Every structure is written in structure tokens, then in C-alpha cells.
């Protein structure tokens, strides 16, 4: 295989896997995200983030981003099941993924670009969770607090990115999906009529956010600009 043939293969693999990830994301959001646990649901949910990870790996994406995508897939699989243990596994997996993204964003970013006002808004949001979220988490209080710090840290680190607007939007979409999930888990009744729209919204924000992080910050240059 010549160098040009290898480049073409890697490029085609990357784009094919991104498309596969988006297609399965749409399938999961349309037909599975609001349903109870099942083997099929777990299988469908596992595909998108693994496909994004393969897309990154195939074309030399940053190892920290690929690692974050793989850990997110682990979290997806865990959260597709019921119970406290799967929830904790998912929480740890996603928390570690956020940590990897934070490190990567700071490595390629410029702290001087961080807007003090935007940073203050994120800090205010983190503080606000002590009033509307933490009192409702009971014995999960400590891990949820740590998770809040990590998702807000990812938002702050994303603000340092230069000419990678799609990755910044992806990071904040990820934050928004986590916020909806926390409301759904700790503040919303299981019988609420908002459960289904919340599930669809959080999955859409999450899947598109993760794809945007890969496309916008996973490579030496963004795959496209907005």
C-alpha cells in the first residue's frame, strides 16, 4: 500500500465511522433513549461513541480525545442499565472522560482567550447546583459534587480554544446534556410528561457534542469550521 493509498484509507475510515456514529445516534434518539433497559438498547447505544473513537484513531486524533470517547462509550453502556452500580460506573467513566478533555483543551488552548465574564457564568452555575441539585442527591452527594466540578472545568477549558468554535459548542452541548440528565435523575418524577422530551434532548446534545469535540479539537486542525 502506497502512502497515498494509506491516507485515502484512513480518511475514508474516519468519515465512514463518523457517519455510522451519527446514524446510530439518530436511531437511538428516535427509538430507544426513552425506553427501559434491554440488550438491544445497550447495543445501539454502544455504537456511536465507539464509532467516533475508531474515526479518531484511524486518522491520528489526539489520544486524550480518543480515550475520552472510549470512556464515554463505557459510560453509555453502564447508564443503559438500571441500578446504583451501573450508575456509579457510568459516573466514573464520564468524569474521567471530562478530565481527559480538560487536559487536552488546555494543551492546545490559550488561557489568555478565556473571557472573565464567561468564566464567571460557569462558576456561578457550579455554585448554583448547591441549591437546586446537591440537596436532592442524598448519598450520591459527594460524587455528584466532583462531577459538577469536572463538567464545569471542561467548560472553562473549552473557552481557551482558538479557532475551534465547533469544539467549544460541543463542550457546552455536553455540559447541557449533563445538566438535563441531573434534573431528570434527581429532580424530575419518573411519571413526569417531560421524561421523554428530556431523554431525547439530552441524548441529542450529548451525541452531537461528542462528535463536535472530535471534529473540532481531536485533530491538529478542525475537520471544518463554522
UniProtKB/TrEMBL annotation:
Protein name (Swiss-Prot/TrEMBL): YhhN-like protein
What stretches pass through the bilayer? 12-34, 46-75, 87-106, 113-134, 140-159, 166-186, 198-220
User: Where does it mainly reside?
Assistant: membrane
Indicate the family of this protein.
Belongs to the TMEM86 family.
- A molecular function (GO) term: hydrolase activity
Q: What domain of life is recorded for the organism? A: Bacteria
Q: How does the protein associate with the membrane?
A: Multi-pass membrane protein
Q: Where in the cell is it found?
A: Membrane
The protein's UniProt keywords, in alphabetical order, are: Membrane, Transmembrane, Transmembrane helix
Question: Isomerase: present as a keyword of the record?
Answer: no
**What are its GO cellular component terms?**
membrane
Instruction: Give the species.
Output: Shimia thalassica
Q: Does Plastid show up as a keyword for this record?
A: no
Amino acid at each position: 500500500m502506497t502512502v497515498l493509498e494509506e491516507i485515502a484509507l484512513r480518511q475514508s475510515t474516519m468519515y465512514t465511522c463518523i457517519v455510522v456514529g451519527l446514524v446510530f445516534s439518530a436511531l437511538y434518539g428516535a427509538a430507544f433513549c426513552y425506553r427501559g433497559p434491554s440488550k438491544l438498547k445497550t447495543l445501539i447505544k454502544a455504537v456511536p461513541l465507539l464509532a467516533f473513537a475508531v474515526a479518531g484513531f484511524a486518522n491520528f486524533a489526539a489520544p486524550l480525545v480518543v480515550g475520552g470517547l472510549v470512556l464515554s462509550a463505557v459510560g453509555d453502556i453502564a447508564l443503559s442499565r438500571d441500578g446504583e452500580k451501573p450508575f456509579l460506573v457510568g459516573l466514573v467513566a464520564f468524569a474521567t472522560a471530562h478530565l481527559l478533555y480538560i487536559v487536552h483543551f488546555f494543551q492546545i488552548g490559550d488561557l489568555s482567550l478565556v473571557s472573565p465574564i464567561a468564566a464567571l457564568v460557569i462558576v456561578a452555575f457550579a455554585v448554583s447546583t448547591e441549591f437546586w441539585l446537591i440537596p436532592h442527591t442524598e448519598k450520591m452527594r459527594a460524587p455528584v459534587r466532583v462531577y459538577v466540578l469536572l463538567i464545569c472545568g471542561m467548560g472553562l477549558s473549552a473557552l481557551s480554544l482558538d479557532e475551534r468554535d465547533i469544539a467549544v459548542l460541543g463542550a457546552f452541548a455536553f455540559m447541557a446534556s449533563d445538566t438535563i440528565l441531573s434534573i431528570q435523575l434527581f429532580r424530575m418524577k419518573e411519571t413526569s410528561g417531560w421524561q421523554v422530551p428530556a431523554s431525547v434532548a439530552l441524548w441529542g446534545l450529548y451525541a452531537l457534542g461528542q462528535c463536535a469535540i472530535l471534529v473540532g479539537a481531536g485533530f491538529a486542525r478542525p475537520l471544518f469550521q463554522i
